[in-house]
Amino acid sequence: MAYYGTVLCSTSICVQPVSPSRRAELHFMIYPDPDSEKAIMGSVVYCIHHKEGCKWTGELRKLKAHLNTCKHDAVPCTNKCGAQIPRVLMEDHLKYTCPQRRARCEFCGKDFTGHTLENHTGSCGFEPVYCENKCGMKVQRRHLTQHKAAECSKRLVPCRYCSKEFVADTLQVHHTKCGRFPVTCPNHCDASILAREDLDLHLKDQCPILGICCPFKEAGCRFKGNRFALEKHVDDNTKQHLMLMCTVVTKQQHQIVSLKSALSRLSLNYSGTLIWKITDYTSKLNDAKTKEGMELVSPPFYTSQYGYKLQASVFLNGNGAGESSHISAYIKILPGEYDALLRWPFSHSVSFTLFDQSNVPEKACNIVESFMPDPTWKNFQRPSKEPDSLGFGFPRFVSHEMLKKRHFLKDDTMFIRVKVDPSKIVAV
Q1: What are the contacts of 184-188 at 24+ separation with CB within 8 A?
Q2: Where are the zinc fingers (TRAF-type) (predicted)?
């Protein structure tokens, strides 16, 4: 037990531990005479553990006796583990922290000292632990290896049909799609079990009782039978099948003509303006010089969706007054679908433009010619069902010499625009 000296303060007497080696000296210093000793030992002091919560106060002479019972005073562990433990904490120490305590594992029920229990905890085979595969199951540690190998829903298992590995709880879903999964023929033929991926081929080419349609089904043949009957049917009905195919071909020809007509209508120009690209000018000019009256004609175009149908033409080597020296350009009226609703004679102004393909657009100098139709001319009356070969335009539209002076030809190509004045389009 430690010895305690007293320190006099202004408000109370504080008590502090004093080592035995200093006791004789302190006794002489503190108690110079019996009267002083009696007065000091009768002084009121606090317990040395008052900061830990002890409320005891009393005469200094009674302090030692109090410390023998003070719950905050440290005493040796009763299990002799060597620790000094306050009496108030002794019960918890003996129960939970003392290395010499006796404790029972809550999982396996075996007794251990406190030190060995700490080593045992975390390795007890009977302790329930969560599966490392995160399947959500808790199993005893001793059974964990077996669980992961044979029971865990998240373990990898091979498909017994295709040998690929899958998570165990997805294997049934895989079986519904596995190409090697065994299935039977839906026609209940004598074939053995088939792999799912082979079923289509079996039904198409191998099943002996499958009702197969005649290969001329799309032509109208309604025969359906097994493979052997089908072969005989095809051999015995060659003439009938040929007649069916001829009917199909005739029908398809009519459809092709109808589609071509519809496509042609979709590609028609209804803007009243034609941009005509004439390529291979040199070759075509040479042909025109050797073939008298050689005329190039443009794609037809309309002045509007329900307007007049027109077509432009050029003679690269000229004709009439421009023969051999000019390009001649003309416009002609073709029979159209809505001629019965239009006003005749044709009376809209028409202009021809030969584009200068200069690299600097601001310096381009196009050649433009235009005219107003003469209503007395036959060219502008309503055309008959047979296209009129007559046209109206400019025999001397542009001279061959002029073509060489600017950029009217570029890459052996020229562009001619034929435009009908939209302000004078008259349609019902």
Answers
A1: none
A2: 65-118, 120-172, 173-231
